[in-house]
Specification:
ADH_Fe/GldA, 14 helices, binds 5,6-dihydroxy-NADP, single chain, Rossmann fold, 2 domains, Dehydroquinate synthase-like, alpha domain, alpha/beta, binds zinc ion
Length: 385
């Protein structure tokens, strides 16, 4: 096992009616800004629950944060925060609202050009406003990690950042608020959490038996419960388990002490920057092709994944690897998510653009061995057409 330094300060308030409990987590004298997305939180009544929990406090609201949140929108919130001297942020939404809130929390305290927060991947962040979250879409793990991703269409960029100052102080996870999710977003969430787990598991053996066991358990849970959530969306235990699985998939626990990949994510971000394809759908295209392409370096873990997650034990190494890649694609398709680039309107010409963007953004040594260069990414994408 590799050495690690694991830190996660986010308090989790989990369960039915837990939104009311956020009143005890927000300081009494705070000037609060509630941040939300395109209106689902208003329609579903989640915002009203938050407003009731904060009754009697000084509260301002900022709505309109887009899926794949935009830099320009975030900067509007920063201006308002500075003008109104806001002291606490509360994100109400999915990964996009939470990621934007992290960026806004850091940008509001940053004296330089806030674009540097993204070009430095967050390393210039030295402080941030405190913030909490009310999660409405289990997927990204943003509710219990310190990372975010911001899109700037003018620059054709979707860039990740990370900072120890960007952990939420608390996150409220009420599985009942996920009942209103459209099928498309349930599926996106399951596949995103699945690929987060894979990015920290499907690398090379590191004698990290606990982390591998946790990861395999998360993967099996998603394979079992994902399709059931589509069939019976209002089953509390299914939604509760999926919500906690998505959080556990990217809160640092399974990633401690193990090699990590993230190539599918970095290539996927460039696809979203190109044509706004949903994040999870980009992963469902890139990952199977990457598994096939990287079957050499990933051989041992692919065989472990085949055996421990899918119960595939028969045949030669390559037969079992073929079978587990097919099973993974089959699972994504079962969730209603297509796995070819053509399904998202991307052709050979677009691949040039994606590969150039990877180069421009410094994504030239991806994967657990830093061995996936732009030409390898091109081969992986061409095989996914
Ligand atoms: O905008 P509103 O109206 O709120 O609607 C949203 C949005 O249209 C809707 N929604 C959310 N909760 C709902 C709901 N609709 C009905 N009922 C509810 N309870 O769902 C749509 C998608 O929301 P979004 O927040 O964009 O989805 P997700 O949580 O999948 O977040 C995706 C973003 O997170 C980034 C992605 O790149 C993408 O930008 N990621 C963040 C990560 C992190 N911080 O660690 C890691 C991930 O790998 C990912 O990159
Ligand atoms: Zn993701």
């Amino acid at each position: 096992m590799k050495n690690f330094n694991f830190y996660n300060p986010t308090r989790i308030l989990f369960g039915k009616n837990s939104i009311a409990d956020l009143k005890d987590q927000v300081p009494d004298d705070a000037k609060v800004m509630i941040l939300y997305g395109g209106g689902s939180a208003e329609r579903t009544g989640v915002l009203d629950q938050v407003r009731s929990a904060l009754a009697g406090r000084t509260v301002l609201e900022f709505g309109g944060i887009e899926p794949n949140p935009r830099f320009a929108t975030a900067m509007k919130a920063v201006e308002m925060i500075r003008e109104k001297e806001i002291t606490f942020l509360l994100a109400v939404g999915g990964g996009s609202v939470i990621d934007a809130t992290k960026f806004i929390a850091a940008a509001a305290k940053y004296d330089g050009d806030t674009w540097e927060i993204l070009t430095s991947r967050g390393s210039v962040i030295k402080q941030a406003l405190p913030f909490g979250t009310v999660l409405t879409l289990p997927a990204t793990g943003s509710e219990m990690n310190s990372g975010g991703v911001i899109t700037n269409p003018e620059k054709g960029a979707k860039l990740p950042f990370n900072s120890v100052y960007c952990y939420p102080i608390f996150s409220v996870l009420d599985p009942e608020v996920t009942y209103t999710l459209p099928t498309r977003q349930i599926a996106n969430g399951v596949v995103d959490a699945f690929v987060h787990t894979i990015e920290q598991y499907l690398t090379y053996p590191a004698a990290a038996y606990v982390q591998d066991g946790f990861a395999e358990s998360l993967l099996r849970t998603l394979i079992d419960l994902g399709p059931k959530a589509l069939e019976t969306p209002e089953n509390y235990d299914i939604r509760a388990n999926l919500m906690w699985t998505a959080t556990m998939a990217l809160n640092g626990l399974i990633g401690a002490g193990v090699p990590q990949d993230w190539a599918s994510h970095m290539i996927g971000h460039e696809i979203t920057a190109l044509n706004d394809t949903d994040h999870a759908r980009t992963l469902a295209v890139v990952l199977p092709s990457l598994m096939n392409d990287q079957r050499g370096p990933k051989r041992e873990k692919l065989l472990q994944y085949a055996s421990n997650v899918w119960g595939i034990h028969e045949g030669s190494d390559d037969v079992r690897i073929d079978a587990v890649i097919d099973a993974t694609c089959g699972f994504f398709e079962q969730m209603g998510i297509k796995t070819r680039l053509g399904d998202y309107g991307i052709d050979a010409h677009d691949i040039d653009h994606i590969v150039t963007a990877l180069q421009d953004h410094g994504m030239t040594a991806l994967g657990e061995n830093k061995a996936i260069a732009p030409d390898d990414a091109r081969r992986i994408l061409e095989a996914a057409l």
